[in-house]
UniProtKB/TrEMBL annotation:
SMART domains: FCD (SM00895), HTH_GNTR (SM00345). One of its GO terms (molecular function) is DNA binding. The keyword Transcription regulation applies. This is FadR family transcriptional regulator. PANTHER family: TRANSCRIPTIONAL REGULATOR, GNTR FAMILY, UXU OPERON TRANSCRIPTIONAL REGULATOR. InterPro entries: GntR_C, TF_FadR/GntR_C, Tscrpt_reg_HTH_GntR, WH-like_DNA-bd_sf, WH_DNA-bd_sf. Pfam families: FCD, GntR. Keywords: Coiled coil, DNA-binding, Transcription, Transcription regulation. Residues 9-77 form the HTH gntR-type domain. Residues 114-141 form a coiled coil. It comes from the Bacteria.
Amino acid sequence: MAFQKVQARKGSELVLEQIKGMIESNQYAPGSKLPTVVELAESFEVGRSTIREALSGLKAMGWITIRHGGGSYVSQELPSSDDAGAVSFKNEQLQEVLEVRKFIEAGCAELAAKRRTNENLAELKETLALMESVLDDEEASDQADIRFHLLIARASRNALFLSMMESMTGRLRESMKESRRLWFFAERASSEQLLQEHKAIFEAIEARDGVEARERMMRHLLKVEQVIEQGRTE
């Protein structure tokens, strides 16, 4: 008899399912506020990062909303099987934006490694520090993420690249917000892991290694693409 490999489940998955079950059983009614991250961490006896991962997953699935500085709330309208088509359509839109981003941002990263100035490095390093300081603040994290990618375009010293990135800022913002949620949920990843990917891109730019900077940026975007593709097929 052939046995299937048994994979250990992460704590965030178990927390997610328990909170989701509480919502489904109306222990937390639509519109009600969930306990804080600290309170949930104490109740489940897990780390705060585990709770944040679970909440990110619930948000990606549409079960909760997270308000800047206001905590997490159960969505007024809970997900249903009818939402599958809308999610699939949104993921197709994300896929299109990501296809454009791959070609533009990989080139930006390569040129930035060759042309960056000390001022560019200082701005990028400052943004990375900001990203690290706001890991618990989803909205601020999104803004810092966008700034990081725009700064790389600026460091490329290619006005057309920068113009294209700035012209699609709205779509870029939506793409990053949604892809981050999907990535945190599907990969059970954390904000810390995403931060490390950005640091790796920065290090290649700092080292003036254009090939490595391009590859690291492309690898980062390909990972997001895989998660979006997974979301379309599930």
